[in-house]
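Entry type: protein chain
Record version: 2
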Amino acid sequence: MITLTLYYATNRNHIGQRWAPESYGQDFSSDRSNNLRFGRVAVEVGINKVKHFLNNQVDGRIGDGEGLSSYIEKKLRKKHLISAFKEPENPTETSNAELASTTAFNELKKQMETKRDLVVFIHGFNVDWFEAVASAMALELMLNRHSSDHDDLKDTNVFLFTWPSDGKMVKNKAYLSDRSDAEDSSLAVARGFLKLRDFLMTLRPKHNEPTLQECGQQLHLLCHSMGNYVLQHALTSLIELNNQKHLPQLFQHIFMCAPDVDDNIFEQEQPMVNLHRLARQVTVYYNNGDLAMYISDYTKGNIDRLGHNGCARPLQLHNKVNQVNCSKIVGGITEHSYYLWATVNEDIRQSIDETTNDDISRRRKPLSSQTWFLT
């Protein structure tokens, strides 16, 4: 057996005691939707089971992250341990009490100092607490599945932001409810980004501390499905909270996987026209056969989805934005959560490792200057 540990932030309501919760629910925190709680969750899993899913073949490709996520979810529902980081009762500028966010960031910083990048993960529609945690843990294991085989590869940590996605399917109502909750969660995400920025600012070397150095590792952001809708509204909130100033470049890469947002989202006067300012590179993964995107298009009254056909006008993309068409290699149960699966997950990892888009080791073929087929 091995113990998996995951750090998280959430604006969900706690189940049980506030600072010793049994889990988190489907509603917002009673404090309000923009209230964030931080902590870590641990679960024991069988090492041989984990290895089985990491080495399992799906449609001829090695790496079954979806199967791994389902296995971890079952273990979590049976037994897990949540350590919620307690907030000081009356925080002030002169108080020595540490904020919960600072506690989380300090612990993550220690891990990053051991040659680890950090991926912030925002999940999508119809996901409860256990499913969110399991997906994040599976994502971390999948991203690191080759690290032990190569001394030059660094490990990657995943940090989960989980919002109150219903986790129940009631025809169209669950989707519309989640969409509203995703929008209402945007301020919490924006506040979290600014907390992260403020923490990073404290790590910069000062004039009287010339020997102090940053850890040198990178931050990344991965949003799945409606998690990209959370990001869309968080971007608007971030600009407002930042007093209309330039967006902080917090991330090395932003990965938009099966994004459930409009396909014109990057165009002028659209909400994500400035997303590229938040990162050095943005990559959109889409699948023409994605059933979830089809349902979003035609039964929920949305216009064409970015996760279905990519950008409406790819020639107008900023040069920091790239697209990857996954349609040729995904199918069946992997058609929507393919960020956890084999070749797509490996392509994400190669970007984290700074492998260039046209590197021969990547399973990509150019479709246009900024769009690639994954093969």
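Comment: Residues 247 and 278 are 6 Å apart (CA to CA).
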